[in-house]
Amino acid sequence: PKLKINTNSSSSDKEDANEKEGRLSVVQIFSRISKIPAFLCLVGQGVFGGIPWDMMSFCLLLLEWRSFTKEQIVFLQLTSGISGMIGGALGGFLGDHFGSKGPLGRIAVAFTSKVIGTTFFCGYVFFDNYMLVLVCCNLFKLTATWTPAAAIRPLCADLARNPSERAQIVALWMLLEKTSASVFGAPLVGYLTKTMLDKHKNDENEMDPATKAAALSTNLFGLSVLFWGMCCFFWIVMARTLNMKDFAGAEQIVKYQPVKH
């Protein structure tokens, strides 16, 4: 009789190992990932970087106080949405191009996006001329949207062992980001703006729209610079962390490190 050799034993063992990994609890996954400094930096930049985007719900009110017409505001929202879509695709291209030799290129793209985007956001909230606001708003959406496609998603994918773990990581991450944005985002801007306006006049109905716009734009830009500055800080820390042994020990990121014989 002929002997039958089981050639699928190794593949079945790998499948069993993958199934066991997929059965890890959320606490176990978070415990493993939290030991990787790069993941902590990703969470930190996401928590602080997402807050200014929640504040932008006040931008429509700011445009009304700038005495722009409804048609002008609608056109600005339409064009900025298109610029945001183009910016996301551009960010993915830049991330793949500069990140071909390692994650430092992706981090550089994300950091550049924050710096350039903040510059154009300044003109967006402070200019009174509609054409200048239109240009700055579109350039802001074109440059400030690089980060997710250029760095966040690729690095997050590298930190996860399998799709199930990646999904749980993103869920926990989004929970922290949305919670912080809901607390420190629009409510904080509204509170500070109201406090600033109360110092000028007691009767809000008699306030000049230009005064309201100045107070709101000051708070929008000041808080945005603060939180985006913290976001840039975490990107810098991540760039420093990439050369540390803790990050090189991550199973999926080790491919970026040079092999030592």
Q: How would you describe this protein?
A:
The chain is mostly helical. It is built from 13 helices and no strands. Helix 3 runs parallel beside helix 10, helix 3 packs antiparallel against helix 12 and helix 10 runs parallel beside helix 11. The N and C termini lie far apart (47 Å). The C terminus is likely disordered.
Tally of individual helices: 13
Order of helices and strands: HHHHHHHHHHHHH
β content, as a range? under 5%
Number of strands: 0
Task: Give the CA-CA distance, first to last residue.
Answer: 47 Å
Average the pLDDT over all residues and give the rounded result.
Answer: 77
Computed structural class: mainly alpha
Shape: globular
Profile the largest sheet: none
Runs with pLDDT <50, length 5+? 244-261
List keywords for this structure.
about 260 residues; mainly alpha; 13 helices; globular
What is the element layout, followed by pairings?
Elements: H1 9-22, H2 26-33, H3 37-49, H4 51-55, H5 59-65, H6 70-98, H7 103-126, H8 130-143, H9 147-159, H10 163-184, H11 186-198, H12 209-241, H13 245-248
Write a brief caption for the model.
The protein is an all-alpha fold. It is built from 13 helices and no strands.
